[in-house]
Batch of 4 targets.
Target 1
Amino acid sequence: MTIHSEHPFETPDDDRDPLRRLRGRLGTTVSLWTSGEGVERAGLTVSSYLVSAGEPGRVVGLLHADSDLLERLDETGTAVVALLGWRQRELADVFAGVMPAPGGPFRLGTWEQTEWGPRLSSAPTWLGVRLDPAATHEVGWSVLVEAVVEHVAVGTDESPLVHRRGRYQRPADAD
């Protein structure tokens, strides 16, 4: 038996969409978007997003069109956008739907209910946002959502979780 360092069924680079390959090389910190309350909570790991500092501040994200989060965000109009750290990579996989979570993803971690939705207590940096429904539209395979930032909490981040080229990476200097 041979052990390979790459996935044996992975599509060769030359057969992949070049724009998606480029996007994968950009790299970004990983965020967790959550919305709802109680059993009506939903969340999604999002690494395609942008935060704009202005008056008011805005966050723009690309969400999976069939995600429970998108449905909950449409219903509530609010969400929490939390930045994840290196220690939360398994949680990121669970909310991305690539790792199982018996009993549901909200069984992992400790959660605090805010007026914008559930907040992961171990994520010290987060936003409370309100959806701008007029700025939501389909973009390719995703839905672009834009939200107004209503609350900002900047905590001490020990080591951010970065996603680049399909993998999580720990930056050499986290500061």
Target 2
Amino acid sequence: MKRKLIAAIGVATMIAGVAACGGDKKDDAADGGKKAEAKSITVWLTVDAQNNWPELVKAADDAIIAKHPGLTVKHEYYGWPDKNTKLDAVLATDKAPDVVEMGNSEMVGYMAKGAFAELDPSKFENSATWLDALKASTTYSGKNYGVPYYAGARVATWRKDIAAAAGVTTTPKTYTELTGDLDKIQAKNGDKFSAWYNPSRDWYAALAFVADAGGAIAKDEGGKFTASLSSPESLKGLNAWKDSVAKYMHGDLTKDESDRYIVYGQGKSAMIYGASWEGGSAADPKVDKTGGKLKDNLVSFVMPGPSGKQLPVFLGGSDLAVPVKSKAQDLAAEWINDFTNSKGQLGLIGKGNLPNNKTQLAPLKADPKTEATATAAEVSWFVPTAPGWGAVEKQKTLQDMLQQIATGKKSVEQAAKDADAAIDKVINTP
């Protein structure tokens, strides 16, 4: 599914007076101290739901209306690029929606600002087995402020025809096997070909090597976050990533991952590591420039890491949250549960998504069509849930560090040290 998480979180001016929440006191008095139930709720989702699974939205509406006759569920749909701008504006008023969809990496800044109401995980089906990275994305200072909606994993995808021409007939299971196979593919195709097209500014891929080596972007030390990209563990991961780029990436070293599937469709690379939809999108006749060779030759597999284990993935995906200014928080939470329960997750699986929980992920591992993505999703990492994480993303500190390393402008050690300094300036400031 072609959907890109928008990392920038513009929440600096939206939360004035945000602590005022809950029901109307006049309603309480009129009902003898019992809060009157809202007559309607407003749900904000992205156009993904509107275009790809409207029947699942309707099913959740029908379920809550059956329990609350007369309730009206209103929906508004937004594209990813403009959603947060509109959300920021409305959260500064008394007209906040009751449910809002957030990209998982967008959650941190809003939680830090107090924009979302705390939610009790026990009230949501499958919360005990939520995927690790999605659970982390809804947690701030030990409290839960959202419900995972769905997930998307990152996998390796390569062309079996190119691999076979280089004498490689099976997909690699270890990193040693992977690099050995890529060496053969690179040697066969020459230095104008990328055995692995790996854009240097793709921090989701590069930082997976850091996580694999036991490193982290930043560490929480008693409530204060300290950047740790220059730690020995992080440097080990960054060096492993640098080596792979130097050996197998012979494309533009200043690019990010946004058009990776388009570049892959040009036929000048054997492998990519990215979102699970990218291979299929590259094989689309509108994108494939190889004369149709991609369609029947793409194979996806779990990316092995240098540690000897599978490379931890940054899960793409969405969460659902209840703005603290919602006047119908209980109903909002109930709608979220109706939408994300096991039945709803089965519907999302049918649309090509991964579920929000490990229980329903397990059967997908037995299906050859979903085995790679489901297995990859089990081992994941997430960004620091720090007050200033949004500023780190907005400044593109990680992307700039990686480009400096890949192009040789700075050594790994110097680039990491400089990135740490930049991160430390903003990461603890809401």
Target 3
Amino acid sequence: MAASAVMQSILVSSARQNACRTPANRLLPAAVQPFSRRAANFRVRCTAEEDQREPATPTSVSLPSPQPGPSPTPSPKMSTKLTDILAFSGPAPERINGRLAMVGFVAALAVEAAKGQDVLEQIGNGGIPWFVGTSAILTLASLIPFIRGVSVESNSKGFMTSKAELWNGRFAMLGLVALAFTEYVTGGSLV
């Protein structure tokens, strides 16, 4: 078999050298010269020795086809089980918390600007039912696409991507905690 491979490589290289000898590329070494399409139909038939008889199969030397760009890989199927969606490394917890933090941060700043109450006063003066209601509605609205098997990445295009939403949610979580901490330390509302 080793002799067969050596013979094939010798025959192919000699065919390639002869096929590529055009007036334009005679000065180039054989290893650099372009491969001609005329040698693409060159067939090599090789047989093994007596004790290693295998049926002879014709092989053809063909040009390597140009590789197209990487094809888009289909996104892996997302599990629609609620336990997988709400798992610690699942797709829903950070997104839901980020969405709640974005709404909470903007609402806290709006109420501070309108009424002058800090975050702790807002929670103490009837803010808990608003918080629970908003959390329930946003959680259900966020879970419905996940339960249907729609991934967030499939709908993210342009400026508003799924990564941008994650980072905005992370910053809103940090902002809400920083707002509450700053108001606690200063003893009053920020605005």
Target 4
Amino acid sequence: MHANELGEVPVLMYHRIIDAPSSVYDRTPADFRAELERLAAEGYVPVTATDYVTGHLDIPAGTHPVVLTFDDGSATQLALDGTGQPVPGCAVRILLDVAAAHPGFRPVATFYVFNPPFEEPTGRTTLNWLHAHGFEIGDHTLDHANLRAASPAEVQHQLAGMQRIITDAVPGVAVRTMALPLGAYPRARNLAVDGAADGVTYHFDGVMLVGANPAPSPFSTDFDPSAVPRIRSQASAGEEAAFGSTAWLDRLAANPDLRYTSDGDPQRISAPRTAPQQPAPSVTDRVYRY
């Protein structure tokens, strides 16, 4: 399989994993497991949102990065039993089980939480479990706020306040990416990246949008870390299914030259000469065209 490290990367967006979906944003545990099994079978390797936006894509040759993101911190994503293990049926348990069955499919994901995380008053137990097991924790504001309707002071209070809750729960953790509630930027877009409130300063390497299309390679001129498109996890039928994960994964499978395929060397960026994407000026000295 030819490498193309200027190709597209699916950044998948999940919300509740629930037996009886009531929204286009919900998936059943069976559907979620089936999507992960498909990703594993098609050679995708999960990476964190920070790995993606910073270009740290150290995955085996011939494989493709995928970013699994979870919004809102639902207990259907992570709940722990009396022994401190994820309960059957929650998203993390399913991800761990699929990874155990498919060597090379990493149990890695990024969780964008608001207050309280995973319906736990402080979030301390669940957030520490995630951090200890290699998952990323991101900011989704204190109250799932519509940042477009908020004043600059409130935008910063929402983002800095949630960062404080995360870092109070997990001392020393770096909160490096955020997801925009409702996909809405603040009127001053820079405040989605940098700001300060109540004695807390924040800076995000990446800002996640709501469901759309595959994201560009972090090495291409199309890449904007402050506006990362995500694909809503969704079956092939139903409202807006043409924009959901099944449709986009079908498209990438049918057109493998479009997707990011690793050359196995994290220091080199390989792409065919015919690839339409252009490398960003900052990485041209690492590019190998064939």
